[in-house]
Amino acid sequence: MSAPRTSSNRPFRGGRRVSAHPAGESGSLALPPDRARVLLYAAFRPAAFALAVIVVAMLATLLTAGSDLTGLSGAVAAGWLAVHQVPLTIGTTTVGLLPVLVTALVMWAAAREAVAATDTDPTRAEIGWLLGAAAGGPLLITAVCLAVTEDASGSIALQRPNPLAAFAWVLVLHLLAAGTGIVFRCRERIFDLLPYDAIAAAYVAGRAALRLSAASAAMIVAGLVVHWSQVGDTYGGAENFVDVLGFTLLSLVYFPNAVIAGVGVLVGPGVQFGDASVGVFTVVGGPVPAVPVLAAVPTGAAALWWAVLLIVPAAIGVYAGVESARVSYDRPAAPWALLAAAGMGSAALTALAALAGGELGNFGRLGVELPIFALAVFAWLAIPGYAGLLYARTFLVSFPTPLLRHPDALFDPADDDYDDDRDDYFPGYPEHVAALPAGKLPELPADTATSADRYAGLLEQPRNEPVGPQPPLDVEVVDGEPAEPGSRPLSDSVESETEIVDAEVVEPDPVDDENSDRR
């Protein structure tokens, strides 16, 4: 049995101590040196990596363009703000359509640092210190970048953005990344506090959102293949290999933005390119940025067969309902997990759509109409999903297989040896019932009721108590196993016999005859 975990024996992650001083668990804000070092890593290491990449990219851009390095500081500051989705104004042109891919990479690095800097059971003081550090470092760099952009406005045509908007974007993104890392690290503890339907809904929503994004990416790639001649025309303005490489990299970093816009086309509302728009049923012509990834945007009238694309979100919604039937306790009269999954999937994709869209100079706003997009995604996941739930409950799944095992179960899912011998402890016990959380055992037939009672009773025993058959009390145990007869050392036998010889024999007192007759 492992020793109880205290603040002095918590594990290290990445060679750095992740626990706070014992006083921190009692509510004190004391910060030991090792914890301060970890918080410095969380505050500045992701930001330092991002700044290093931005500096290299800006240097390469200025050198290949034949420009001097006088505007390097302003370009680096603008790059830091653009990575955090802060709209920029260059001259009279507003650039609010910024690549989501770079922002996602920075958030991933910040979340990974938060995972490495926290423990599975952190205190409130530890969480507060970590969130403060994760947001404080980037906010400090943002303040410096805002000052640099104001000083560099004389050498480059870059206006200082709104400081309140800049600080708000940086604060929200880094708090979200750090919070995601903490939740991932403490997921077992959080799962114990959340209702199981919420966990199942998040699982179904995440997979449905990924399927919609994958279908959109496949549609865009197919469109690029069909319009390959237009893709070649976008490279017509390239004068050398550097320009071709720049167009290609620009298309790659904006590809996730195009994927989110493609989801808007799949679910029905379509996507706007300023005055132009593209949907399943209508296409309105207009100017489109000359970027290779946008060569798949159709320019003619909408074809009738495009309506077939609506089968894709319908099929994804139906499968989400089937999946909800498999992993949740939804019933046709109470599809709470399915409705929660539709809401979570709609909220996640709408948030991504808000990041993926924005103003782009004279082209106007590029992106989807957020309210209509949110309602469309929810409807495609909820209505066909309910049909899939009805079908699954009627023909496929009579009872779900939950995602989680109860932490107090006697067997360890990661222990292969114990899983092989599980039938010895639960003979004839159904596999899906053995994986149920505590308190959610279903009503079983009469032949398995005994096994269910045994399982429910064994869950109440401490983990360190023996479960299997134990050796008789008169058999000696050596190294945890019963010793074979005659295997005891001779010295042990002699000592036992000596102790028996030296023992005092006490005879019982004679029984009184009167008491004997009375009995």
Notes on the structure:
The chain has 519 residues and is mainly alpha-helical. The protein has helices at 22-25, 33-64, 72-83, 100-117, 124-151, 163-185, 187-193, 196-226, 228-234, 241-253, 255-267, 311-327, 336-356, 370-396, 416-420, 422-425, 431-434, 449-458, 490-502, 513-518, and strands at 12-13, 16-17, 88-90, 93-95, 158-159, 271-273, 276-278, 283-284, 358-359, 365-367, 477-478, 481-482. The strands form 4 sheets. A 5-stranded antiparallel beta sheet has the order 8-7-6-10-9. Helix 2 (33-64) packs parallel to helix 5. It is flat.
What's the layout of helices and strands?
Blueprint: E1 12-13, E2 16-17, H1 22-25, H2 33-64, H3 72-83, E3 88-90, E4 93-95, H4 100-117, H5 124-151, E5 158-159, H6 163-185, H7 187-193, H8 196-226, H9 228-234, H10 241-253, H11 255-267, E6 271-273, E7 276-278, E8 283-284, H12 311-327, H13 336-356, E9 358-359, E10 365-367, H14 370-396, H15 416-420, H16 422-425, H17 431-434, H18 449-458, E11 477-478, E12 481-482, H19 490-502, H20 513-518
Antiparallel strand pairs: 1-2, 3-4, 3-5, 6-7, 6-10, 7-8, 9-10, 11-12
What is the averaged pLDDT score?
Answer: 77
- Structural domains: how many: 3
Can you tell me the residue ranges where pLDDT is under 50 for at least 5 consecutive residues? 1-27, 406-468, 486-503, 514-519
How helical, in percent, are the residues? 55-70%
Transmembrane segments: 47-66, 86-108, 129-149, 164-186, 198-224, 244-266, 278-297, 303-322, 334-358, 370-392
Biased composition (Acidic residues): 494-519
InterPro entries: DUF6350 (IPR045931)
Keywords: Membrane, Transmembrane, Transmembrane helix
